[in-house]
Amino acid sequence: MEIGEAHDVSAAQVAVAWLLGRPAVSSVIVGARTDEQLADNLAAAELKLSDDERARLDAVSAPPLLYPYWHQAKSAPDRLSAADLSLLEPHLPWNPITRCCIRTTCARSAIEDAQLEARGDRHPETAKQMIDR
């Protein structure tokens, strides 16, 4: 709704414009019961969304990881191959190569920190250290 309000267009126009800009989407089938709905849907072809708006829409529409992928991301992020990372990296709370937090707030728990410390892979900042600074 915020994006539609910023452009002074309907949510349907934003949705159709976002779909038209998705990779590999060459057309969108719209359904309209009235002439007004059809005109509204067709007007979406003229709507240009910014990269930031597209990223926001991508984020809210991203499906959650299915098993076993969520399990791999949570339990073994330091053992992921390049192929695994191409799928899982956006879902990791920290970068498995640099061992630094990706998010602004550390999402790792004290248990995960203890496991890393036991293996000798100390995370640069614990959640408590991030809160204290």
Write the layout of secondary structure elements.
Blueprint: H1 2-7, H2 11-20, H3 35-43, H4 51-61, H5 69-75, H6 82-88, H7 110-119, H8 127-132
Molecular structure report:
The chain is 50% helix and 0% strand. With 133 residues, it is mainly α. The protein folds into two domains: 2-61, no CATH class; 69-132, no CATH class. The longest helix has 11 residues, at 51-61. The radius of gyration is 21 Å and the shape is elongated. The relative contact order is 0.08. Mean pLDDT is 78; it is low at 102-107 and 126-133.
Quick gist of this model?
The protein is mostly helical and 133 residues long. It contains eight helices and no strands. It has two domains: 2-61, no CATH class; 69-132, no CATH class.
Shape: elongated
The count of β-strands is 0
Average the pLDDT over all residues and give the rounded result.
78
Number of domains: 2
The radius of gyration computed from the alpha-carbon positions, rounded to a whole number of angstroms, is 21 Å
Ends distance: 36 Å
The largest sheet, given as strand count, sense and whether it forms a barrel, is:
none
Secondary structural class: mainly alpha
Could you spell the SSE succession in H and E letters? Answer: HHHHHHHH
Total helices: the number is: 8
Features of this protein?
mainly alpha; elongated; about 0% strand; single chain; disordered C terminus
